[in-house]
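User: Predict the structure for this protein chain, please.
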Amino acid sequence: MTEIAASNYKKGDPFPARTDLTKLRVYSYQTCPYAERALLVLAAKGIDHEIINVNLWDKPEWLLERNPLGKVPVLEIGPDNKILYESQIVSEYLDEVYPNLRPLQAKDAFQRASDRVIIETFSNSYSRLYTLYATKNLADVWTDITENLQKVDKLLAKRRGNEKFLSGASLPGLVDYAIWPFIERLPQFIDLADHNSEEFLRKELPTVYDYRKQLLADPTVQKVCVPYDIQLAHARQYRKVMLKGNTFK
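Assistant: Here is the predicted structure, written as structure tokens:
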């Protein structure tokens, strides 16, 4: 069972006490792709947890006490309140400490390492695209956007081969859930530049288009996925802030 806090906690708000110390707690932000990674793993494995959403624009002091970097996800564990953060570290930890609940990582050490390489590569590709948000007129960088998106499509095609998922199995694995939040958000770059993302994906990014379709049919993704209209609204808001020279701090 997953319990989600009713509102986003901000600076000055009192710390929400943990009432069940046996339950994992995740500090999150609704549209954060990195927090989504951890939530996908929790959902896929059916791990009981609660979610505390925080306001990353106005962070509560107690979030910074748990993660000096001020990022999410942050995982709080057990009665002694052990803390972990950084999305991939949290995801791998969850898979390792709950091995009997749908293992998500490859058994082979080299394959696990290769999966980490592709995860890091996709993260870097997404970061490069995200910097383009700060361009006043996205039409000026549309060529850069399309070139970066096509690189992602080629990279995905090479790694995926003829498989349905990068895990090589009938169900998504940790590698799929780690890159999904980035694949999920790629249409934003197209829509924000006033192009039709559905048409562009289908014609120009065929591998991304099919891979998205496969993952959108996955029950875990359906459970965790934030509606696209909410994601796009957040992207528009974040872009306005970036154009003023600000970001999350």
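The chain has two domains: 24-97, 109-243.
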